[in-house]
Specification:
The protein has 243 residues and is mostly helical. The chain contains 12 helices and 2 strands; from the N terminus they run αααααααααββααα. The radius of gyration is 21 Å and the shape is globular.
Length: 243
């Protein structure tokens, strides 16, 4: 995540914490909502605009920068042992994924076959792992960094990889909310690196949309998984034809 990405991610988080929507921000800045959405979508902002947005929240630019730095020092990755503790417990994986997606306790127990007591126990485990802070009245505060990632080839990635291979692709991808795109090309090293950057930006946009929908009631949302993978590869059938 670049500093520009971090600033916009911090702004979105701060606006959400202050309960300010894009529509309300636009009104206070005498701009159209479409303009505000474009600013955040394109991540293009002048210092003057940044100051205006900060003032709407009764903050200074320095406050935004401090908040950004604080977020960057949050937990970015678990240890192998911590991930293994989660990976061994499907219920803990479930509650952990929901918590990282900003679900409330009541959202989790209303959607899944898990009691409030069981859910609180799992949240307490996540609190001990410093992934979340379990606040009074069982409110959940996410503690991990915005660019938190599971360990490369670690226990959790292995769980997801097995699940993706076994379950994710068992569909025709023909429903309205489904999409499968397979691309083949021949890239130079520089082009490959450039495309990786674009993929990282797309992944960040996925997270931004996820955060934008935090306030939408859970009954109006569904779990969404996007698998983005790229590697130097060709069909096995081609190998016998290769010189």
């Amino acid at each position: 995540m670049t500093q520009i990405n971090s600033i916009f991610s911090t702004l979105k988080s701060a606006l959400k914490a202050h309960g300010i929507t894009y529509a309300e921000l636009a009104k206070k800045m005498n701009l159209s909502e479409a303009t505000i959405k474009r600013i955040f979508a394109e991540e293009n902002l002048s210092i003057c605009r940044l100051e205006q947005i900060s003032q709407v929240m009764n903050m200074e630019i320095s406050d935004i920068v401090s908040l950004m730095k604080e977020r960057q020092f949050r937990l970015k990755q678990l240890t192998e042992e911590q991930e293994l503790e989660i990976a061994r417990d499907p219920a803990l994986i479930l509650v952990g994924v929901c918590a990282l997606n900003r679900w409330k306790l009541e959202d989790i127990i209303s959607r899944y076959n898990i009691t409030e007591h069981q859910c609180v126990q799992k949240l307490a485990q996540l609190d001990r792992l410093k992934i979340i802070e379990l606040l009074p009245n069982n409110r959940i505060k996410v503690l991990v960094s915005p660019n938190f990632q599971w360990r490369k080839n670690g226990p959790m990635q292995n769980v997801f990889r097995e699940t993706i291979g076994r379950e994710f692709f068992k569909t025709s991808f023909s429903k309205e909310n489904e999409m499968l795109v397979v691309l083949n090309g021949t890239f130079s090293r520089n082009s490959s690196l450039e495309f990786h950057k674009k993929i990282n930006k797309l992944a960040q946009e996925f997270e931004n949309i996820n955060l934008d929908d935090t306030g939408v009631p859970i009954k109006h949302k569904n779990g969404v998984t996007a698998v983005i993978a790229i590697r130097n590869w060709q069909f096995g059938a081609f190998e016998s034809l290769q010189k």
